[in-house]
Specification:
- With 239 residues, the protein is mainly alpha-helical.
- It is built from 9 helices and no strands.
Length: 239
């Protein structure tokens, strides 16, 4: 058995070639993940997610099947399928997890920047984007789930919901440290700026397997230019 070369030139021998053409790789989510209540099943549930994350460090997400995951964590395929009907269901669950973790880290980091009296909203924006870039580049699994070319529409919907929550949180944070003018729909503009950034980063990841310096700098330029359409160039810091 052998797997397709990854973006980093690595292979994972535990994943069979052309997994995306086999049963279990359907793009449809026939049902959501079956979140167990029994302790033993909860451990299996988490083991499946942890094993998938490990496989994603060396294997493209479209080349992993339920069979591969079961084999890697010594579980029958039927046990994996009982908890996750398709690979897309696992993808969706990991997307939820990674989006929540990313949002929590960025909000916490932004609050720290504000507490340290960062000079401008432009600087705050670039610093938070730099943190996000480091999180993506530091984990191939996160990049595969959130930036890979093969993304299920349900995962996109989850990302939008997370971005919407993040947009609202960003407005609250900015208002905590800056005196914001009354700008209708400001949270929506933060959502759209985040989606523009993700689009640029997804393209870079597809080409290079990482968010390269050029893509990062251009994403910062695009984000700040877009937000300048609504935010004044200078925001007064709160005392």
């Amino acid at each position: 058995m052998k797997s397709k070369d990854t973006q980093e030139g690595q292979t994972d021998e535990s994943v069979r070639e052309k997994a995306s053409h086999r049963k279990g790789r359907t793009g449809q989510i026939t049902r959501s993940a079956r979140i167990p209540t029994q302790e033993r099943s909860r451990k299996r549930y988490q083991t499946i997610l942890d094993t998938t994350i490990q496989l994603l460090e060396t294997t493209n997400i479209e080349d992993i099947s339920l069979h591969d995951i079961g084999k890697a964590c010594n579980l029958p395929s039927a046990s994996v399928h009982y908890l996750f009907s398709t690979m897309s269901a696992i993808h969706l669950e990991l997307s939820n997890t990674f989006n929540e973790q990313m949002t929590e880290k960025i909000v916490s980091f932004t609050r720290m920047l504000g507490s340290n009296h960062i000079g401008s909203w432009q600087e705050m924006t670039k610093c938070t984007m730099s943190l996000a870039r480091d999180e993506y580049n530091g984990s191939r699994a996160i990049s595969e789930v959130l930036l890979a070319p093969v993304v299920h529409r349900s995962v996109r919907a989850v990302s939008f919901q997370t971005n919407a929550a993040f947009g609202a949180a960003t407005v609250e944070l900015y208002n905590e440290f800056f005196i914001l003018p009354d700008i209708p729909n400001m949270a929506s503009y933060f959502v759209l700026s985040t989606e523009m950034t993700e689009g640029i980063w997804a393209g870079a990841y597809a080409r290079y397997g990482k968010i390269d310096d050029f893509a990062f700098e251009e994403s910062v330029r695009a984000t700040i230019a877009y937000l300048r359409c609504f935010l004044p160039e200078t925001l007064t810091l709160r005392n």
